[in-house]
Amino acid sequence: MRARAITHATPAESIGERVRATGKRMTVQRRLVLEALQQAKHHTTAEEIASRIRRQYPQIDPSTVYRNLEALEELGLVTHTHFEDRVTRWHLADAHRHGHLICRSCGAELEVPMSLLEPLAAKLRAKHGFVADLAHSAVVGVCSACASVSSR
Amino acid sequence: MRARAITHATPAESIGERVRATGKRMTVQRRLVLEALQQAKHHTTAEEIASRIRRQYPQIDPSTVYRNLEALEELGLVTHTHFEDRVTRWHLADAHRHGHLICRSCGAELEVPMSLLEPLAAKLRAKHGFVADLAHSAVVGVCSACASVSSR
DNA sequence: GCGGTTATCGCAACCAGCCGCAATAGCGGG
DNA sequence: CCCGCTATTGCGGCTGGTTGCGATAACCGC
């Protein structure tokens, strides 16, 4: 029963191959981390992932989760974003890329299309030759709701 | 009642008054944190500040430094910026505001004028009513030197 | 100045995340 | 199908930073 349908994005089968192609191995733990990321498809924390997995496989160590996230990131399969609270959030790389706005007063999170951030990236590239990854860190500020309240 | 003159610079004396005006207290430790920030005027880490102070006053606890930085930030005397390495850097609030670019490959730090970032802030304000603080987090990416090396 | 209120301190415990190490287990070759 | 090489695991311990707590000491009013 080997690789058949190339349904959409990344069938579990091909991920394994991709991992092996770089000399890395597809372990149970690694697969579990990927599954957890797929299920909680939105920015999860490593902690979240770890505890979700441990409900079923209590022997899996948190550090294994951290190392796997890192390894999968190297492969380009997952990415992380820094939010304001000092925990890092992880998600599958193929999820469409977007920027994040975080309200420092109410904590609300907004997503904005990359197209909005792109002009700045272009400018940084032109002026400084700097290839910016604007999705990597959330933009902090004050959301419209909080801004209007505080100015009243 | 003496609080009165708010000169815009911040002579040590008036800082004390400003602190007291909000019900906070001007302690030795707090003064030491401020002094350390003045000396190392550019983005220091809390750790740096703590160890600098402890050379003279070994009994001062790191947590005190952290709490004081926070308290001083609430007063608007100090601000912090998040760099890539998850280390927070602190500086006096009156230091001129600017953006930061960080190369994820060589770690180089570039400073850019706020005017470069301003258009994005304006757009976020217009489209989402979101008042962004673009100096708060450094922009990660790849600097021109590293970019040209890796593409060769 | 003196005393009471309470912000702040130092300490110890805690948390997310990371690292070194010995044991385990994928994977490719025979 | 088995073997050996070595990536990866689980564990224990560590780091940078944060928090809860009882003790201490600024500040304000008298």
Description:
2 copies of one chain form a homodimer. The first copy, chain A, has a 3-stranded antiparallel beta sheet with strand order 1-3-2. Chain A has a 3-stranded mixed beta sheet with strand order 5-4-7. Chain A has helices at residues 12-21, 28-39, 46-56, 62-74, 114-128, 144-150; strands spanning 44-45, 78-82, 88-92, 98-103, 109-113, 131-132, 139-142. The model of chain A is unreliable at 1-9 (pLDDT under 50). Chain A has 2 domains: 12-92, Arc Repressor Mutant, subunit A (Orthogonal Bundle); 98-150, Ferric-uptake regulator, C-terminal dimerisarion domain (Dna Ligase, domain 1, 2-Layer Sandwich). The N and C termini of chain A lie far apart (65 Å). The first copy, chain A, has 152 residues and is α+β, with helices and mostly antiparallel strands. Chain A has 6 helices and 7 strands, in the order H-H-E-H-H-E-E-E-E-H-E-E-H. In chain A, 45% of the residues lie in helices and 19% in strands. In chain A, helix 2 (28-39) crosses helix 3 (46-56) and helix 3 (46-56) packs across helix 4. Chains A and B meet through helix 5, strand 6, strand 7 and helix 6 of A and helix 5, strand 6, strand 7 and helix 6 of B. Strand 7 of chain A pairs antiparallel with strand 6 (131-132) of chain B. The structure holds a DNA duplex (30 and 30 nucleotides).
